[in-house]
Structures are given as C-alpha cells and as structure tokens.
Amino acid sequence: MVQLHVKRGDESQFLFSTTVDAPLETVIQQITAIYNGRLKVDRICSEIPELADHGVTLPPNMQGLTEDQIVELKLRDEWEDKCVPSGGPVFKIDEIGRRNGHAPNDKMKEVLMRTMEEAKALISKKQVQANVCVTMDMVKEALDQLRGAVMIVYPMGLPPHDPIRMEFEDREDLSGTQASLQVITEDECQLWWAAKEMQRGKKLQEYIGKNEKTKLVVKIQKKGQGAPAREPMVNEEQQKQMMMHYYRRQEELKKLEEADDDSHLDSEWSDRQALKKQFQGLTNIKWGPR
Length: 290
Prior knowledge:
single chain, 5-stranded mixed β-sheet, alpha+beta, 10 helices, elongated, 7 strands, 2 domains
C-alpha cells in the first residue's frame, strides 16, 4: 500500500493509505473527508470541557446577559428543565454568560472528559509518529464515542442551539469564525506533491510509478492559493541532531586546543640542554650588575 503523509502548510495532519491504481478524484475525496472530520472532532472536543463545567448553552437571545437583564426582558430558557444531566445538576455559574451553569456532577464530568481524551487520541497527529494511518472509520468512531458520552450524561439530549448537538447533526454555523478558515470543501481541495498539483482525472501511479511501497509527503491546499512551500531538505528532528553534533564538535575542538598549550616549553625541566649546562657551570647565570 502507498502511504501518504498529509500536511497542510508545514503542519503534519495524518497518514493515509491507498494504492497506485487509485483515481486521484477518489483519493482527494477521501483525504478531504478525513481532514474535515478530524476538524469536527476537534471542535466538539473544544466544547466538551465547557459543557462539563457549566452545562448546556443558553438560547442565543440570552447569551451574554446578566441575571437582571434577563429578568427585565422577561426571558426564559425553556430547555433548562428538559436538558438536565444524569444524577442531577451542580450549579457553577458561567462568567461569560454563554451556558446555564447547571453542570453535571463529578462522576458524569469524568465520563465526558475521559471520552474526549480517547476521541482526540484516536485521530491525533501523534498517530503519524506511531506510523498509524487514519481512516474515515476511525473518525466516525471518535464521533460515536463523543455522541455516546453526551447521551449518557444528557439522556434527554442537548438543546437544538447547543454547538455540540449542531456538530453532531451537521448543522454547525462556522461563518465568521477562525474554524471556517480551516475547513476545505471537496470541490476546492487540491493535492500537491513535489511542487506539482496532482490533477483530478488521473491515477496516482501517473505521478509516483507502480511501486506499492512508496511513501511520500503530500500537501492539501485550497484552490486559488497557489503552490504550497516545498518540503525542507532536512526536517526539524534532523536539524536538531545536526546542531547537537556541531555543538559537541565545538566542545571537542576547545578541549584539544587547551591540550595543545605549549607554554610548558619555557619551563626549566623541559630544557633538553639543562644537563649539559649544569656540567659546564652555565646554570643560574645572571647578566647585569651585582
């Protein structure tokens, strides 16, 4: 199987396994789905700690308001009594006024946090170092784990306006957010290798040959952004090793330089003519007036 190390810019994303006969249209489609799926898991995981600490989100028209303002405007959260965590809520006010403050108890909080860590590990960038290829099934498994944990803690479900529920139902609105800049749709996704765009309509083997054991670094890019920067000749780890070797070499040269100090040659004991001068009475001769 051909192994593709997928990057965006200089940032490593995941390993992807395919064959040389695979149409690039299919490869791009699969890589895009995994890439965007991992982003979805990350977005949900970023909301889980807030859910565990402060409960579900308030309706949009109540977010950011103080208690006095809510009373004055006669607003009411109709989902507060419906979306109650298992084991009863623990009140912990949300300082920014985004969530209702009815948090799960410690046991339920542990369920959410543990599942979040497991889901993140499943699609982590560290899988590249472990030489594990990420598949769409792994992304779906991470989403199912998160969905199951939320259902355990909130058996009645989350409010329809909660970002976690919206992510699960593919209704998320990312417009105007930093997250929207990271998403790449299938139509605008381009795959680059060796400063060349791998064109749709061709097969992978037209670029890399027929060796199924090939490993290469490919970069995903949005259409219209031009060619991504080429891979450096040495990676970060190799550069560190080279710097360490250079430093050790410098230290060795310093020690050798110190060992080459020949000032001892001016000492009396190093004079080869010392014995001859002693027999001839030429030692301790001082020139000058007494």
